[in-house]
Amino acid sequence: MKTKPAKSRRGYIQLYTGNGKGKTTAALGVAFRAMGRDLRTYIGQFMKGRRYGELTAARNTSLITIEQYGKRTLMHVKEIPSDDDVGMARRGLRKATQCMLSGDYDIIVFDEITTAHFFHLITLNEIIETINMKPGEVEVILTGRYAPPEIIEMADLVTEMKEIKHYYQQGVGARKGIEH
User: Fold this and answer.
1) Per-residue pLDDT tens digits of the chain, which is 180 residues long
2) Looking at the domain assignment, is residue 145 inside a domain?
């Protein structure tokens, strides 16, 4: 199914973390750039079940696949995760890992995986084991807040998004086409 053999290039591990806006957007930017070179991307979105603009956009191409593994509601720090939340995250991790190993994708994005770890949906060992299975030519991108030091150490590229100022603090909610 692969459009181009990727054996001649090395895939790296990228991590976009921090409390600022733009982690998923950065990963989507890589997917969009890759699409321009006929590379295939699989994006597994953990803890997300809402309808975001990228889902609609991805339907317009066969080169980007996005699947969500979360409810339409947000989790809160003080909540104990439900069995449903844990089950969705684990299913997402299994599916994204299968895609990573399939040879059908050049790039795999584990969107919000470090946040899923923070909320006790996925263990640190599960993330480390997944990264260790990465085929040499596959690019892996992890996103989310609260990246553990062990994941930062394993990554080849780490970018921390730091919020300096955000209009959300002035009461501006998520806007269609900009934040969702």
Assistant:
1) 554 554 568 999 999 999 999 999 999 999 999 999 999 999 999 998 777 778 888 888 999 999 999 887 665 555 788 899 999 999 999 999 999 999 999 999 999 999 999 999 999 999 999 999 999 999 999 999 999 999 999 999 999 999 888 787 788 887 777 777
2) yes
Domains identified in the chain, total number = 1
Rounded (5°) CA angle 64-143-55: 35
Cα(136)–Cα(6) distance, rounded to whole angstroms? 10
Question: Quick check: is 168 in a domain?
Answer: no
Integer CA distances (angstroms), 144 to 7, 24, 35, 102, 103, in order? 29, 8, 23, 24, 25
Judge whether 87 lies within some domain.
Answer: yes
